[in-house]
Amino acid sequence: MHELSLCRSISSIALRAAQGRKVAVIELDVGQLRQVVPETLVYCWTIVAQTTPLEGSRLRINHIPGVLHCRDCAHDTHLSSGLAILRCTSCGSPSVDVVHGEEFSVNSLELEG
Prior knowledge:
About 20% of the residues are buried. About 25% of the residues lie in helices and about 30% in strands. The mean pLDDT is about 95. By secondary structure, the chain is an alpha+beta fold. The strands form two sheets. The chain has a three-stranded mixed β-sheet, covered by helices on one side. It has a three-stranded antiparallel β-sheet with strand order 4-3-5, with no helix packed on it. Helix 1 packs across helix 2.
């Protein structure tokens, strides 16, 4: 369950950025190809934030769908949910670059009062 270690990193970033102010919401971008289970991330957040200045804050997760760009035919493939096969849906080529879907970033904090 790497979500727990991700939450520890998010906590460190949020505490540093908040500079002692109370955090209500932490907004994240999470790409489809990151293999993060959003429900598990939210659950782990409650454990990590407990008894810290972040207790009571919540995660707002922006899901970023996967997009591949084919080097052979220049087609952009938008991945559906679930397991992704990294091939062009137009020509079948495996020569693709990931354009979106690998993101994992803290975008913003909403502070209380």
